[in-house]
Amino acid sequence: MPSVDKFAVEYALSHCAKSAVEKGHSLEPEQEYLLELDTTIPQAPSGMSWDHELAKNEYESGNLSKKEYGYIVAHIDMGLSDN
After folding, report:
1. C-alpha angle with apex 14: 10 to 16, nearest 5 degrees?
2. Which pTM was predicted?
């Protein structure tokens, strides 16, 4: 969904930037904002784990913002989910 794709990309870039800095690399000054982004993933409902179907259902039900949905999709696609 294009309206949430930008948030998925933002999440991935931030995750990669934070990982690079943890490994001792530095960022260009214009990229340092990626370190300040709060990329916290909300807890899945009822002790479930996030997957694409659950995230889509929660987004369509109004329980997730576009940003949260995009971040969750990226989190899953990057293999960072509990599944």
Report:
1. 120
2. 0.89
